Amino acid sequence: MKGLSIIFGLWLLTQNVFASGDWVFASRTPVTAQASVAVFHHLEGAGRKHIALSQQTLAVVWEDDHSGSPQIYITYKALAGERFSAAQSVSSGTEAYEPAVTGLSGNRFAMTWEQDGAVFLRSAYDQQLSPALKLSEAAGSHASIASFANSAYVVWREQRATGWSLWVAVIAVAADGQLTLTGKNRIEAEDIASTLLFPAIAANSTGLVVAWEDRRAGHTRLNYSFSHNHGAAFSPPKYLNEFYSNRNQYDKGSGVTRVALSSYAQNEFLAAWMDKRRGNNGYGIFAAQAYDGSFGPDEKVHSAQGDELAHNNPATSGNARGDFVVVWDDFRAGNSDIWISRYTEDSVWSEDISPAPASGSGEQTHAAVALDEEGGLHLLWIERETVDAPSRLWYSLGSMRE
C-alpha cells in the first residue's frame, strides 16, 4: 500500500495537482496581474466574503490601489475555464473599501462595499453590472452580504451623533439582475454609544443571523441576533463567545475579533472567529454551530499542532448537503501559510491541512473560501514575497477525493 501511495503522489505531481486531506488541489491560478510596485490587494471585508459561486461561474471581489486610489474590482471564471476575466471596476467614488460578494441562482451575483462613507450594492448578471444602489443613510461602513432564493441581505454599521447602529437591507434581485429594495430594518431600536464593528451575515430557509464585535460591556464580545422572518424583526442580542477574565492581575478579558458566518445543511449556521482565550499564545480559531435560533458551545477549530502560535484571518463556507470548513493563516511552518479544517463525520474538527498551492515560501494570507455542492473547495488568498512586498491574488480548486 505504501508503494501505491508513492506512485499516486508522483502521478499527482505530473498532473499539477496536490493531495491535501480530503481534497486534491489543482495548481494555483492567478486572479490578478503580476505583483507591481506599490500595489496592494486587500481581502478585508466584514465576514471575508470575497469569493462566490453561481451555477458554473465563480466571482471574486477585492480592493486594490493600482489606479492611484483604493477601489473595488470583480472578476469571473467559468468553473471549467482556465483563466479569470479582466477585472471590472465596481466602485466609482474617491475611495472604496471592504467589498463582499454572494452568489444567487441563474449566473447572478450581488456585491456590497463602502464608498466615500456610504454603503452601496450592485448586482452582476452574465458579467454585466447593474447601477449602484445606495443603502446607508448616515455614515456607513463594514458591510457584508448573504443571499437566499432571489434576495440579497446586506448588513452594515452606521454612525450618528447619538451613537452606532447595525442595519440590514433586503433587496430583491430579478432574473436580469435588476435590484429592488424591499425592506430595511435596524437590529436594535436604540443607538449604542460604544463601537460596533465588522458585522457578518448568513441566510437560509430558517431566516437570517447577524454577528458582530460589540464593546458595550467594556471589553470586546461577539454578539449575535436572529431574524426568523428574514429581516422584518430581530431578536435581542445574545453573547456568542465564552468569556475568560481575571486569570491574572493584568487580565481584563479574552479578546475576540473578525467573526465570519456561513449557512450549511439548508437550515443551520456556522460562526468562526479569532479568540485570545489562550493568553500569551495569541489568537486561536474558535467556532460555534447554530440551529433554531441559538448557537451551541464554542469549539476550538485548529489542531494541537498549532496550539503554541497565533492564528489569523478566519473565513468560513458551507453547502446545502452539510459540509462546512474554516480557513485561516498562521506561521507554524516558518512562513505564513493557509490552513484548513473541516467538520468530520465524527462531529469533530479534522487535523489541519495546508494545501501546497497556498503554502511554502513567501506570505500567503487572508484566505476566502466557497464550497460547492459536491464538496469542492474554492480557495482564494493574497500572496507576497515578504510582509511589506506588493501583492497578488491567487486561486486553487480542491476537488473531493473519490
What's the gyration radius in Å?
A: 20 Å
Number of helices: 1
Q: What gap, in angstroms, lies between the N and C termini?
A: 17 Å
User: In percent, how much strand structure appears in the residues?
Assistant: over 45%
Report mean pLDDT, rounded to a whole number: 92
- Find the count of extended strands (DSSP E, 2+ residues): 32
Relative helix content: under 10%
The largest sheet is:
6 strands, antiparallel
Q: Uncertain regions: pLDDT < 50 for 5+ in a row?
A: 1-15
The backbone outline, from C-alpha atoms, is globular
What structural class is derived from the secondary structure elements? Answer: mainly beta
Task: Summarize the structure in words.
With 402 residues, this protein is mainly β. The chain contains 1 helix and 32 strands. The chain has one helix at residues 2-14; strands at 17-20, 23-26, 29-30, 41-42, 51-54, 57-64, 71-78, 88-89, 96-104, 108-115, 118-125, 128-129, 133-134, 139-148, 151-160, 163-173, 179-186, 196-204, 207-214, 221-227, 238-239, 256-264, 268-275, 284-291, 294-295, 299-300, 311-318, 324-330, 337-342, 363-371, 377-384, 391-400. The strands form 7 sheets. Strands 1, 2, 3, 30, 31 and 32 form a 6-stranded antiparallel β-sheet that branches. Strands 4, 5, 6, 7 and 8 form a 5-stranded antiparallel β-sheet that branches. Strands 9, 10, 11, 12 and 13 form a 5-stranded antiparallel β-sheet that branches. The chain is globular and about 50 Å long. The two termini are 17 Å apart.
